[in-house]
Amino acid sequence: MRKHPDHRQQPIAVWGAPLEAGAGTRGCLMGPASLRTAELIETLETLAPIVIDHGDVTPAPAADFVETPGARALPTVAAWSAALHEAAYAAAKSGATPVFLGGDHSIAFGSISGVARHAQEQDRDVFVIWLDAHADFNTPATSPSGNMHGMPMAYLCGEPGFDAMRGVEPKMPSTATRRPLAPENIFMLGLRSVDPDERDLLSDRGVRAFDMRDFDERGVASIMRDVLEEISSASPNPWVHVSLDVDFLDPDIAPGVGTTVPGGATFREAHLIMEMLCDSNLVSSLDIVELNPFLDKRGKSARLLVDLVASLFGRRIFDRPSRSY
Ligand SMILES: [Mn+2]
């Protein structure tokens, strides 16, 4: 018997993060605006009692941070991360479900560290469900491109090379002794483009990775059941952050991203994951990242993302409007 818990209890706090300096292609700056144009806020309002759109985060001064070789535009990314960290922490602490609209995936430096700080203060274990073609587990030393959107997971797991970022979470209660995130609490789904050094690091650190072959062989329902079961049996009160990268999806259904990789998740696979996440009632916070409206086709990717977020927050199949992509 499937559970259908009531998700209409908790307020949703939305923050835009128009950051593109972490990506190799420009355009993610327009991501939050495109998601709002696709009526993300109005859609959430049909699914939650209170939706607060805080607008876009204002970054800290980039001059506060120093350049780091191998990490392109680190001061800019760090400046956004500092502000995002504070916004995420405050939203989580307020009891809302924080939702971050990227921006490239480097917004996760701040969004995840911020919610993790709150969760750790509450003695809650933090888990991340990472829906992405890429693992984003590079460090400045291993990254072939130096683009920081490929690095947030390594940073959050305490890998070296990010000293210049450390000021981002000055009040992190446990930075000195604990990382914001334990690698074994990360579940990556949809991988199909992982750099060689990154692959070694992932398996060495115990990150749980499910690639597209696992999707083909096992099906997403079986994978998701295991992931959700593992999280609920590992922790009585987990904080589960979902990070959805547009390139998780197949480029045919979501072309609006600078890092397309063929063979991504289908429309039904993506919706099923969102529906199972919703049924689990475990999701505590969300990033929607890498939407590049400059590359999108007439809002196709933005509208699909809004529909996926609606599934995550409880829209049922029968409630879904007819729509052609
Ligand atoms: Mn990514």
CATH homolog superfamily: Ureohydrolase domain
Q: What sort of overall outline do the alpha carbons produce when their principal axes are compared?
A: globular
Round the mean pLDDT to the nearest integer and report it: 93
Uncertain regions: pLDDT < 50 for 5+ in a row? 1-5, 170-177
Q: How much helical structure, as a percent, in the residues?
A: 25-40%
Total number of strands: 8
Structure description:
The chain has one domain: Ureohydrolase domain (Arginase, Chain A), CATH 3.40.800. 34% of the residues lie in helices and 15% in strands. The protein is built from ten helices and eight strands. It has an eight-stranded parallel β-sheet with strand order 2-1-3-8-7-4-5-6, with helices on both faces. Helix 1 crosses helix 10 and helix 3 runs parallel beside helix 4. The chain starts with 11 loop residues before the first strand and ends in a 13-residue tail after the last helix. The site of manganese (II) ion (MN) has 7 residues, from loops.
